[in-house]
């Protein structure tokens, strides 16, 4: 039976340890289940199989006093002073020693990595994992990743030794017995690091509510630094290696032929902390052309103009992945970056449009090929755009310039406050005279590239 309990295991290990310290083993039921009986009962199976400790005493009389409940409620993961020493916890939970786990282990817990931390502008992605592995003295390819979110790990473009996602009991045992462990900011991971058998442990610093500096200090004050093997050189801060921006492009049908040129210019000129996402009907080809670095998300191809009318449907289908970044930037696949650019410095707290390169002086018309913004506001725009374009398809009233027409309507009617890049930011390949010192993106002439008219390559 899978005993994963959506993040409750680590917290309840703290509750259990604190109850033992304050009331003794015989008082576990009275101290904890009186406060939150239902959750404790659900967690009991986890503790029994995970820790192999003595069965909880089932007495008729339970300590239901206000003091017992108060202490139980206080015995959470933040109250390190409420738990026994490491040696006592190892005896209480009886983690069994295994010698066959000689490979480094990296723990990635999806909820703790993204749900909370993205609100604070921190995302722990591929760069963070690589940095943590390097802090251990290894490459990611030499490490196993233990995770409750294998889909996300698969999307990172990493190539670990293996990806392990079993029950909480199995995962905990592997993490606790790894000679080298990279912790995630989760209580489940904290316990594996605290009572496991390790030569070296890397723990994240400065993320969300996980005050690793305080936790490290409290742990070392209870046990020697040598015993815990947590020196300052083993601590890694994710802020320097986070991936802020999801840069997104869409290519299906023959448009996949355009991706290699897009990717090569992306690698050369896009700077900063950026992860490339490609929505495509040919993910295998995209992965090969990007050396596995782009996240390829499978979508279905639609006959022109369906593919552009469904653009924001496609984007919303990847919401779970894109939400893990602080900002989103979309760029058409026929774009080529011709100058260095860091979108994390361009995108502020507003939707970021780009004035059309064909604009006459004073025109505020924006192009559909370059648009981005902070993740929350961008997704709000995507919902509106999807609804508008789907209604247009249903009514048969297709806008003249498809998603670009809708984008300008959104700008004028919904986006009360926005930023816009100048027209000179982009130019068209067929009009090289438009290029200026401020030009960053060139849009290839698709008719010239394919050697035929749009009606022939876009079907």
Detailed description of the structure:
Helices cover 42% and strands 14% of the residues. It is built from 21 helices and 15 strands. Helix 13 links the parallel strand 7 (274-280) and strand 8. The two termini are 49 Å apart. Mean pLDDT is 75; it is low at 1-6, 29-79, 207-214 and 217-242.
List the helices and strands and how they pair.
Layout (H helix, E strand, L loop, with lengths): L7 H16 L4 H24 L14 H9 L11 H8 L11 E4 L1 H6 L10 H11 L7 E4 L2 H6 L6 E3 L3 H10 L2 E3 L4 H8 L5 E3 L9 H11 L2 H4 L16 E7 L7 H11 L4 E7 L2 H7 L5 E4 L7 H4 L1 H7 L1 H4 L4 E5 L3 E3 L5 H4 L4 E4 L15 E5 H21 L6 H12 L4 E4 L4 E3 L12 E3 L2 H5 L3 H4 L2
Parallel strand pairs: 1-2, 1-4, 2-3, 4-5, 6-7, 6-9, 7-8, 11-13, 14-15
Antiparallel strand pairs: 9-12, 10-15
Number of helices: 21
Q: Taking Cα atoms only, what radius of gyration do you get, to the nearest Å?
A: 27 Å
For the termini, the CA-CA separation is 49 Å
In percent, how much strand structure appears in the residues?
5-15%
Strand order of the largest sheet: 3-2-1-4-5
Mean pLDDT: 75
Helix proportion: 40-55%
Structural class assignment: alpha/beta
The total beta strand count reads: 15
Low-confidence segments: 1-6, 29-79, 207-214, 217-242
Largest sheet: 5 strands, parallel
List keywords for this structure.
elongated, five-stranded mixed sheet, 15 strands, alpha/beta, disordered N terminus, 459 residues
């Amino acid at each position: 039976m899978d005993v994963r309990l959506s993040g409750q295991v680590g917290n309840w290990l703290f509750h259990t340890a604190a109850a033992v310290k304050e009331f003794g083993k015989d008082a576990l039921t009275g101290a904890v289940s009186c406060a939150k009986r239902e959750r404790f009962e659900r967690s009991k199976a986890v503790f029994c199989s995970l820790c192999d400790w003595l069965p909880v005493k089932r007495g008729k009389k339970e300590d239901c006093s206000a003091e017992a409940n108060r202490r139980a409620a206080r015995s959470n993961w933040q109250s390190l002073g409420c738990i026994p020493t490491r040696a006592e916890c190892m005896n209480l939970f009886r983690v069994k020693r295994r010698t066959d786990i000689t490979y480094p282990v990296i723990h990635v817990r999806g909820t703790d990595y993204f749900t909370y931390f993205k609100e604070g502008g921190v995302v722990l992605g591929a760069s963070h994992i690589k940095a943590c592995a390097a802090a251990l003295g290894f490459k990611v390819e030499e490490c196993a990743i233990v995770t409750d979110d294998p889909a996300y790990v698969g999307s990172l473009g990493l190539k670990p030794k293996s990806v392990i996602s079993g029950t909480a009991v199995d995962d905990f045992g592997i993490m606790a017995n790894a000679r080298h462990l990279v912790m995630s900011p989760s209580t489940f991971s904290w316990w594996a690091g605290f009572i496991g058998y390790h030569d070296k442990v890397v723990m994240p610093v400065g993320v969300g509510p996980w005050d690793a500096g305080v936790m490290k200090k409290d742990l070392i004050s209870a046990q020697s630094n040598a015993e815990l093997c947590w020196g300052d050189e083993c601590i890694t801060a994710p802020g320097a290696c986070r991936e802020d921006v999801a840069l997104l492009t869409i290519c299906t049908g023959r448009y996949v032929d355009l991706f290699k040129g897009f990717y090569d210019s992306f690698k050369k000129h896009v700077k900063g902390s950026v992860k490339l996402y490609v929505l495509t009907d040919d993910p295998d080809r995209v992965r090969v052309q990007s050396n596995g670095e782009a996240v390829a998300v499978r979508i279905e191809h639609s006959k022109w103009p369906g593919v552009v009318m469904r653009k924001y449907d496609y984007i919303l289908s990847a919401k779970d992945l894109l939400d893990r970044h602080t900002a989103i930037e979309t760029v058409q696949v026929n774009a080529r970056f011709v100058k260095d650019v860091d979108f994390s410095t361009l995108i502020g707290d507003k939707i970021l449009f780009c004035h059309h390169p064909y604009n006459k002086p004073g025109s505020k018309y924006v192009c559909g090929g370059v648009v981005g913004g902070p993740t929350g506001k961008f997704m709000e725009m995507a919902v509106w755009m999807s609804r508008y374009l789907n209604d247009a398809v249903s009514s048969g009233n297709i806008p003249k310039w498809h998603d670009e027409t809708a984008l300008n309507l959104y700008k004028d009617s919904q986006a009360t406050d926005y930023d816009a890049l100048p027209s000179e930011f982009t130019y068209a390949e067929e009009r090289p005279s438009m290029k200026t010192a401020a030009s960053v993106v060139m849009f290839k002439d698709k008719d010239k590239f394919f050697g035929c008219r749009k009606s022939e390559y876009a079907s």
